[in-house]
UniProtKB/TrEMBL annotation:
Keywords: Transferase
GST C-terminal domain location: 86-201
Pfam families for the chain: GST_C_2, GST_N
Domain GST N-terminal: 1-80
Record protein name field: Glutathione S-transferase family protein
PANTHER family reported for this sequence: GLUTATHIONE S-TRANSFERASE GSTA (PTHR44051:SF8), GLUTATHIONE S-TRANSFERASE-RELATED (PTHR44051)
Classification via Gene3D superfamilies: 1.20.1050.10, Glutaredoxin
Stretches assigned to coiled coil: none
GO MF term set: transferase activity
Originating species: Bradyrhizobium pachyrhizi
Length: 201
């Protein structure tokens, strides 16, 4: 049985959305970060960083939301959440799956802290560049891989929803609103929102 270690109103959202999209049976294991449960010795064996989400699946254990997306999509190909390794779309899928943690999240931190980082040394370039590139890609739609919804959309969609609609850190653009709207309309997204808010789907 897949076990997802999570906490309400946290970065667990994308992992919950992923598992709801997958249709796989899984157990949600509440991990109360307000009491420091993520720093317990047992939890640190799963994720030494002491962060949620984390996941176990039999003997497999891992953390990091994008890694969880990649693992579930590959371990359970019947979910159709990733192109096959031999599919040419696989390259773009991987690029966009990891765009969220490697570009969107650092760009948001840069905006939040008002940190000045030279674009020549910042791996993500600049916050403006990140969202300009994403805007251009999303105008192609409807999903990152065209007509195929994938785990990359979960990583990008969750991050963009928080950045634009929830925390209003990034000014909206027509492509962002349309894309977020398509994500929010998915039943699995709606179930995940209820769960992540502390309820049940």
């Amino acid at each position: 049985m897949i076990k997802l270690y999570w906490s309400p109103r946290s970065r667990s959202f994308s992992a919950i959305w992923l598992l709801e999209e997958s249709g796989l049976p899984y157990e949600r294991v509440p991990t109360d970060i307000s009491t420091g449960a993520q720093k317990s010795a047992d939890f640190l064996k799963i994720n030494p960083m002491g962060k949620v989400p984390a996941l176990t699946d039999g003997d497999a254990q891992l953390a990091e939301a994008a890694a969880i997306c990649a693992y579930i999509a590959d371990r359970y190909p019947e979910t159709k959440l990733a192109p096959a390794a031999t599919d040419p779309k696989r390259a773009r899928y991987l690029q966009w799956l990891f765009f969220s943690p490697s570009c969107i999240e650092p760009a948001l931190i840069q905006l939040f802290t008002k940190l000045e980082v030279p674009t020549s040394t910042a791996a993500w370039g600049s916050a403006a560049q990140v969202f300009d590139v994403l805007d251009a890609e999303l105008q192609k739609g409807p999903w990152i891989l065209g007509d195929q919804f994938s785990a990359a959309d979960i990583a990008i969609g969750a991050g963009l929803n928080f950045a634009v609609r929830v925390f209003k850190m990034v000014p909206s653009r027509p492509s962002f609103e349309a894309y977020i709207g398509r994500c929010v309309a998915r039943p699995a997204f709606q179930r995940a929102e209820k769960i992540a808010a502390g309820g049940s789907a």
